[in-house]
Amino acid sequence: MSNKGRVLVAMSGGIDSTMAAVMLHEEGYEVIGITMKTWDYASSGGSKKETGCCSLDSINDAREVAVHYGFPHYILDIRSEFGDAIIDDFVSEYLAGRTPNPCVLCNTHIKWTALLKRAENLKCNFIATGHYANIRQENGRYVISKGKDQHKDQSYVLWGISQENLKKTIFPLGKYVKDEVRKMAYEYGFKELAKKSESYEICFIPENDYRGFLKNRVEGLEEKVAGGDFVLSDGTTVGKHKGYPFYTIGQRKGLEIAMGNPMYVTKIVPENNTVVIGPKEELQEHNMIVKGLNLIKYQSIESELEVLTKIRYHDPGTMSTITQKGDNIQVKFPKPVNAIAPGQSAVFYEGDDIIGGGIIQANN
Fold first, then answer.
1. Is 45 left (phi over 0), alpha (psi -120 to 50) or beta?
2. Catalytic pick from 54, 103, 106, 124?
3. What is the mean pLDDT of each run of 10 residues along the chain (364 residues)?
4. Which domains does the chain carry?
5. Catalytic one among 53, 54, 103, 203?
6. Is 106 noted as a catalytic residue in this protein?
């Protein structure tokens, strides 16, 4: 075994995970590649050719890199676990009127668990992925911080990883920007890979059509929820919608209702199939409650703390004060934020460091 140790690298066949594996190999680690099969494209109702990390082409791309560098490569079938935990949760959250973030749940409960279990079986010291983020040890804790590339930074989706799992995790790309990684791929001879486009869609949602996915997944859903009321905040009915699961907080387009001024979805009430709409001002909130807390930088938050809070992946963040109450966090925004969506992740930053995160439950 290498004196640096043996590392199991999650390889999707894309440029980032490929270069993560190559970098570690070049640094002297004993690399083992693994590609996880998480879902069946055909079962999602897509009409286009299968693409992305679960396609046969991507699996072959990952295997070719492993063969070229002479390290082992395995395929791990986790479709059953993925479907039960991620897809079922995705559907149930929308049916509960919330907006889920399946990538966070997948990282926390599926990918890391599957990788570490296989790593133990293969006597690996570490696991590695191609995420753009950094890890360091400080004051006895493993801290995730933003990647160097602020446009590509993926720390937001990693808040749920436990300290025990972070201890065994490496992010080789954290200190690079994407253009540097592309250049390295080109220099290493992966010219086609360097030009490969990226997908920002949820992996199991064909053509990024979550409404179509829900209709395909839940038999009779469209008929069950059609014809509910659009109402104003005072309860006045102003029209009919196509079913509450097909709307998200902050949505403006696709409402198909004329009110004389722009209207947005401000609340979803699944109990009576009601979608509340209103002007943009009604989307603004000063407070929210976050549950399912996972703390990273600190073991606990003893007093009120000023942090930057991100309420969605591409949110630049808003300064706020947070107070821990058991496993929950009370968040207060001095300046109101728009479209707080229950079900999404709230992630708290101190500079570039993640303090922790959780799931948005309510605004009050």
1. left
2. 106
3. 88 93 96 89 50 68 93 92 88 94 88 92 96 96 97 96 96 97 92 73 81 92 93 96 95 91 95 96 96 95 95 95 93 95 96 97 69
4. 6-207 (3.40.50.620), 225-278 (2.30.30.280), 284-362 (2.40.30.10)
5. 203
6. yes
